[in-house]
Write a structure and sequence with these properties.
- The complex is a heterodimer of chains A (45) and B (451).
- Chain A has 45 residues and is largely without helices or strands.
- With 451 residues, chain B is of the alpha/beta class.
- In chain B, strands 4, 5, 6, 7, 8, 9, 10, 11, 12, 13, 14 and 15 form a twelve-stranded mixed sheet that branches. Chain B has a three-stranded antiparallel sheet with strand order 1-2-3.
- The model of chain B has no long low-confidence stretch (mean pLDDT 95).
- Classes of the chains: A little secondary structure (45), B alpha/beta (451).
- Chains A and B meet through strand 1 and helix 1 of A and strand 3, helix 3, helix 4, strand 6 and strand 9 of B.
- Strand 1 of chain A pairs antiparallel with strand 3 of chain B, so a sheet runs across the interface.
């Protein structure tokens, strides 16, 4: 493509197949524990 | 839904529902203002008229590329996730904040915990209460293997013998119950010594070290009972801990207020001290406090985050292994969409326990009677409240439904929502504004590094 570059693999829909095992780290969303987004978390699978 | 923005000379689009990120030229960027899903195969004449600044051939090519991405379902992709909420339901408890000490040896001016005692008197957690809390966690965790215990306060080092005993107790349960405990601790550092550093570096999978940055910034609010700043005491101790920690995770973590909206200088200062994992976060509080961040400060704060993003980009391009927590973003291998629908899941998967053994949805709710969930002493646990928190997904929050950042912040902090907007389902506006800006910066860095 000349005008648009795809920067990442778009895979949010594919992650649905992982099923939400719940083993990943809790992501405190408040400011006081330094964990604001879930986007920086790792998947355990 | 898409989100378009420009930053640092880049034209960027996020496709919200697929998570795809695109870097575009100006023609493509402008064309997206006129495109809707279900577009025709051929570029309509109207677009040539609207984009007459660009050669017809460019408009035609660009249209073809946009059409291809829509056909591949990575642009204007549909939101198929709401039905997943049904299957989420309540979940086992897997994460616990142990308020091991409702007491503190600092008197930080911006402390949300009323100088450590959460407004309910100074108290240390006994070993017996802590043991019951660990038992409650194991019993409530069903099939979850990885369990998290965060030693929090107040200042947890004021009750460190109990911390050590509780770690030993939890470890003794791992094999029999097929659990893997991950311990973390958050400390102001004043009481760190060789023995504590050794223990923390051996047992804690992550440690959060509180420091606000430059000495004059840190010592403005992080003061002892006599009013003296703690910078000179804590810096050598933090350096020792980090040097001896090896590859294990840690963060130096600070708070910025309306008085240091030039906080990129504090990030740089912490880097210069040798700390490579840094987090600086806004003071989230009632707007009446003199240090609070209000809408008035937002333009300066947005500019500062963009400035910091450029600084981080320079460091990354040089190969420096420096990390600013809020620009961390994994665009490919991050958590699954289930996790993204309700974030921390406080009150459901995550709870806090006080020195008295009382259970709250998280440390930020401690002391709020109507959100008290039960007690580890008698095993009571309010299932109605748990259900309320479990269903607080991005689809239950009106403002989140149509927000482009919903799969990255997951509805924000329920405690902030409750404390400052009156409901766990009403996102805290200032936090949302700041979070969206940080996300844009993080995405820009990814785009820039992809060149």
């Amino acid at each position: 493509m000349k005008h648009i570059k795809v920067v990442n693999k778009a895979n949010l829909k594919e992650t649905a197949h992982k099923g939400g095992c719940g083993e990943c780290q809790a992501s405190c969303q408040s400011a006081c524990k330094t964990s604001c987004t879930v986007a920086n978390q790792k998947c355990e699978k | 839904m898409i989100h378009k923005f420009t930053q640092n000379g880049y034209y960027i689009v996020l496709d919200v529902n697929s998570g795809a990120v695109f870097e575009l030229d100006r023609c493509a960027y402008e064309m997206l203002d006129y495109i809707k899903p279900g577009i025709a195969d051929e570029c309509p004449q109207e677009l040539y008229n609207l984009l007459r600044d660009f050669p017809e051939e460019t408009v035609k090519e660009t249209y073809g590329e946009i059409k291809e991405l829509i056909d591949r379902r990575i642009l204007f992709s549909t939101d198929d996730y709401e039905p997943f909420v049904e299957s989420l339901g309540t979940a086992p408890v897997k994460s616990m904040c142990l308020n091991i000490a409702h007491n503190c040896n600092l008197r930080c001016g911006y402390c949300f915990a009323s100088q450590g005692d959460f407004g309910h008197g100074k108290k240390l957690m006994s070993y017996e209460v802590g043991k019951k809390a660990i038992d409650f966690l194991v019993a409530s965790s069903a099939g979850r293997k990885n369990l998290e215990v965060d030693f929090f306060g107040g200042e947890p080092l004021m009750n460190f013998d109990t911390v050590k005993r509780l770690v030993a107790y939890a470890r003794s349960l791992e094999k029999e119950h097929n659990k893997n405990f991950r311990f973390t601790i958050t400390t102001n550092g004043l009481l760190l010594d060789k023995d504590k550093i050794d223990f923390i570096n051996k047992e804690m999978s992550n440690v959060v070290l509180s420091i606000d940055g430059r000495q004059e910034i840190n010592d403005r609010y992080r003061i002892n009972a006599q009013g003296a700043g703690c910078y000179e005491t804590i810096v050598p101790k933090f350096k020792q801990l980090v040097e001896e920690r090896g590859d294990k995770e840690y963060y130096v973590r600070g708070t910025y207020t309306r008085h240091n909206t030039d906080f990129s200088k504090d990030v740089e200062h912490l880097f210069s001290l040798g700390f490579d994992q840094v987090s600086i976060e806004p003071a989230v509080t009632d707007e009446d406090y003199e240090y609070s961040i209000t809408e008035k400060e937002l333009p300066a704060i947005f500019e500062e985050y963009e400035h910091l993003a450029k600084i981080m980009l320079e460091h990354k391009r040089k190969g420096d292994k420096l990390n600013f927590f809020h620009f961390m973003l994994d665009l490919d291998q991050g958590p699954c969409v289930y996790k993204r629908l309700r974030g921390c899941s406080c009150g459901n998967e995550y709870i806090a326990v006080t020195p008295e053994g009382d259970i709250y949805p998280c440390h930020q709710f401690v002391g709020i009677d109507e959100k008290k969930m039960g007690s580890v002493l008698d095993g009571s646990f309010n299932q109605e409240l748990k259900e309320d928190f479990a269903t607080a997904t991005v689809y239950s929050k009106e403002e989140c439904k149509n927000c482009w950042a919903k799969f990255y912040c997951s509805g924000g902090c329920n405690a902030n929502n409750y404390l400052y907007e009156g409901s766990i389902r009403k996102p805290h506006k200032i936090s949302c504004e700041i979070e969206r800006k940080r996300l844009e910066c993080a995405i820009m860095i990814k785009v820039a590094l992809d060149e």
